[in-house]
Specification:
Elements lengths: L19 E6 L7 H14 L3 E5 L2 H7 L4 E3 L27 H13 L4 E6 L1 H23 L6 H5 L4 E6 L15 H22 L2 E6 L6 H10 L3 E3 L9 H14 L5 E6 L12 H12 L3 E5 L11 H20 L7 E6 L2 E6 H16 L3 H8 L1 H14 L13 E7 L6 H14 L3 E5 L2 H7 L2 E3 L18 E2 L7 H10 L4 E6 L1 H12 L11 E5 L15 H22 L2 E7 L6 H10 L3 E3 L7 H14 L6 E7 L8 H11 L5 E6 L11 H25 E2 L2 E2 L7 E7 L2 E6 H4 L3 E2 L4 E2 L8 H7 L17 H4 L11
Parallel strand pairs: 1-2, 1-4, 4-5, 5-10, 6-8, 6-9, 7-8, 12-13, 12-15, 12-16, 16-17, 17-24, 18-20, 18-21, 19-20
Antiparallel strand pairs: 2-3, 10-11, 13-14, 22-23, 24-25, 26-27
């Protein structure tokens, strides 16, 4: 575990005593808003501030009275898993008028509120900024009208604003993801997966309309995540003649024995002449020209509903805590800021810079400058679009470049949801690049047995949404079979390797690269993509499969907590997977609202267990009469799940009773989440492009020869970008005994989890985002976002 940094600035320096913070949700609702409200309330109370909930958005601020209520710790319990916004949201005409804002200012001053946290879209945030700019003038008017005392102007002289973007459309520039987008993608993909089974049965074509009047993010990413045949969205209007091209592609797919077609349309889709493209128009086109049985499904407000995904709960909780820190650090001249996600980091950006760029997107689209609109949308949107374009068009064999290179793909380690999406993407991008692609069944074990065959474009159709590993995967390491593997590489003339897997894949590639002196067959470009539910691979903040596992943990914890709401005074001890890595337990605990999480990386003793029991005993005296404790499977060899269960049962006797639950392999199963499908698709495409580049560089004298450190890489997400890192350099960052990285980014989320569970601890704010500018956030063109 990383040693404490002596330069850390702890939160006691930023007291909220004597301050009042208000939080409101405005505009369209989005799943995860409640998690953000909960985080703001609890963090605010933790630092000693008064926190108020403003009900019904800006309308409640204008109307005042019962709409502005002081929040309590217990009052925001059970909000985490609820969709929508429990404090209400409303479109407010009154706040657009000067008189309305004057009433709102009066209501805030009455409660001593000078810190406002707004969760909404760009319209809501723009309104908040205008309110801030007018604040001193509004107070002066209130004094003139005799509604407030003159000394109140000095006392409440500055209004501090921090925004969080809640919008399912992901249409706000400056952040890779807005609160609610991932949950909306879950709803869309759930529907698509369900529709695919009925479409396949009847050989039907389905046209699905998804939300996105001005932004095509949901349409684009859901098309990537389900392998749709065609997609329409505002930022990429099709050229004249698109009807012929689409019908030709659909008929080619049917000729390839594909039993269904999926077409996704954003509600704001247009053609290059600005004419709306509707689902019914597409249906009539397909029926009229091809005679295919076609159905239309309009998803509508289903996309706004349901429980928030694990991603949205974590995102909203992180942003809520960061928003309170930003409010406490704000001075009179600090501009209104918005808390954003860039890559894997929370950052603060000037609110009006983000709003201005968001408005420039619409201006670019009105001027039909669609390339500029895509650029302004940000790197996440750009990379989704470039990956979609790579995978969308299947070229005829005669049009493909002939590279004469053979590339093998294999899965190694335990299965992880999203592996199949990565394989599909790798195969299709490889074929597009002109390579001959080979699939290796059952990992390195199948490799040495010769279970290798060429894999074609059509062989990976429909793989995106499938869980597990269709290629088959084993934990076997190559070390004992180097002769046979080298022989198979020689037989099949394999010029490059793409290995998708967990810690065994990492170890396996290290073994192959260290044997290069003895076997020239291993002197080829090799790249690894991390795919493991444990998320324990050095060199990457995230792994394919971990998001799906987190959602499985979160869903189960929600059900378990619900069962406790009837019985009362019950504590659940839940064991998660992860080996020695506490990622699933910690982040799952944050998403599920756990009271305690035990992990290997943070050693604990019997005194800590006693403290946790006392904490739960105290909690049972409040209105929240249930507890949730997560334990990583290898957190401590003596404090087992049974031991902790028995200890809690004994110490809590007469106060609460206990139940235990071992989640086991359900965390590895199920259909991959939209995040894992998209992450797998994008990183595999990126990996194949790297292989192509390396093959060209290392092809000399009719053979491929690559034996430098840089020719064996891991493609991982590091903070704000995707980077290729030589495995040799990652060895120093690895704890090989416990199969974890020595430094793990998610450990900084543990204090957030503890604060939200009402533990009094130090909170390090040295890494809290300093105010940046939007232009600085965009990395170099060579960088690559992993956030969907």
């Amino acid at each position: 575990m990383a040693q404490p940094d002596t330069k850390k600035i702890f939160f006691e320096n930023l007291s909220g005593a004597g301050k009042a913070i208000a939080v409101l949700t405005s505009g369209g609702d989005a799943q995860g808003m409640n998690a953000a409200v909960r985080a703001v309330v609890r963090m605010g109370i933790y630092v000693g501030a008064k926190v108020y909930l403003i009900h019904e958005g800006y309308q409640g601020m204008v109307d005042g009275g019962e709409n502005i209520k002081e929040a309590t710790w217990e009052g925001v319990s059970s909000m985490l898993q609820v969709g929508g916004t429990v404090i209400g949201s409303a479109r407010c005409k009154d706040f657009r008028s000067h008189e309305g804002r004057l009433k709102a200012a009066h209501n805030l001053v009455r409660h001593g509120i000078t810190n406002l946290c707004v969760i909404g879209g760009d319209g809501s945030l723009t309104g908040a900024n205008l309110f801030r700019e007018e604040w001193s003038g509004l107070l002066a008017e209130l004094v003139e009208q005799g509604l407030i005392e003159a000394d109140a102007v000095q006392k409440y002289s500055a209004l501090h604003i921090v925004g969080m973007v809640g919008s399912i459309d992901n249409d706000f520039c400056g952040t890779d993801m807005t609160i609610g987008t991932d949950s909306a993608l879950h709803r869309i993909i759930e529907v698509v997966d369900a529709i695919m089974t009925t479409a396949q049965s009847h050989q039907r074509t389905f046209v699905l309309e998804v939300m996105g009047r001005h932004c095509g993010y949901l349409a684009l990413v859901s098309a990537l995540a389900c392998g749709a045949d065609w997609v329409f969205f505002p930022e990429m209007p099709p050229e004249d003649g698109w009807e012929d091209n689409m019908c030709q592609k659909l008929s080619e797919n049917r000729a390839d024995k594909k039993r269904l077609n999926i077409i996704i349309v954003a509600e704001g889709a247009i053609d290059c002449r600005n004419k709306a493209i509707t689902p019914d128009y597409i249906k009539d086109l397909v029926v009229g020209r091809l005679g295919l049985d076609t159905r239309v499904t309009i998803l509508g407000h289903v996309q706004r509903g349901g429980t928030p995904s694990a991603f949205d709960r974590i995102l909203a909780s992180r942003m809520g805590v960061e928003a309170v820190v930003a409010l406490l650090e704000a001075s009179a001249d600090t501009p209104a800021c918005v808390v954003s996600l860039v890559g894997n980091e929370a950052v603060r950006l000037p609110l009006m810079e983000c709003v201005q760029i968001t408005q420039e997107v619409q201006k670019a689209m009105d001027e039909k400058n669609f390339d500029e609109a895509v650029r302004l949308r940000g790197r996440s949107f750009e990379h989704n679009l470039s990956t979609y374009r790579l995978l969308a068009s299947r070229k005829a064999d005669s049009e493909l470049p002939n590279s004469s290179f053979n590339v093998a793909v294999l899965n190694v380690g335990a299965p992880a949801a999203g592996m199949n999406a990565a394989v599909r993407s790798a195969v299709r991008v490889g074929i597009t690049e002109g390579h001959k692609m080979f699939a290796v069944n059952d990992g390195f074990e199948g490799f040495h047995k010769g279970q290798i065959k060429e894999i074609k474009w059509g062989d990976v159709g429909g793989w995106t949404g499938q869980g597990g590993s269709l290629l088959g995967t084993k934990r076997t390491l190559p070390g004992k079979h180097l002769d046979k593997i080298a022989e198979q590489m020689r037989i099949h003339n394999i010029n490059a390797l793409l290995v998708i897997g967990g810690f065994e894949a990492y170890m396996g590639l290290l073994e192959l690269s260290s044997a290069r002196d003895k076997y020239s067959e291993f002197c080829v470009p090799m790249v690894m993509i991390p795919a493991t539910v444990s998320n324990n691979i050095p060199g990457s903040d995230l792994s394919i499969g971990s998001d799906t596992a987190l959602n499985a943990i979160t869903d189960t914890c929600d059900r378990i907590k619900q069962s406790a709401s009837g019985t009362k005074r019950r504590v659940f001890i839940i064991e998660t997977m992860g080996g020695y890595c506490g990622y699933l337990a910690t982040v799952g605990g944050l998403a599920a609202g756990a009271d305690a999480v035990y992990i290997f990386e943070e050693p604990f003793d019997i005194r800590d267990l006693q403290t946790n029991v006392e904490h739960l005993t105290h909690k049972m005296k409040t209105s929240i009469q249930r507890g949730l404790v997560l334990r990583n499977e290898n957190c401590n060899e003596n404090f087992t799940t049974d031991f902790i269960y028995q200890l809690y049962s004994e110490e809590g006797r007469g106060v609460f009773d206990c139940r235990k639950n071992i989640l086991g392999h359900m965390q590895q199963g199920g259909a991959p989440s939209p995040f894992d499908r998209n992450f797998g698709t994008k990183v595999a495409a990126k990996a194949i492009q790297w292989i192509t580049r390396m093959l060209k560089e290392s092809y000399k004298g009719g053979i491929v020869f690559a034996n430098s450190e840089e020719s064996v890489c891991l493609l991982g997400m590091r903070r704000r970008a995707m980077v290729f890192q030589p495995l040799a350099q990652l060895q120093g960052e690895t704890d090989f005994v416990h199969r974890i990285p020595k430094d793990q980014w998610w450990l900084k989320l543990r204090p957030v989890m503890k604060i939200l569970a009402k533990y009094k601890i130090d909170y390090d704010v040295s890494e809290s985002g300093q105010l940046e500018h939007v232009t600085q956030v965009r990395p170099k063109e060579s960088d690559f976002s992993a956030c969907i």
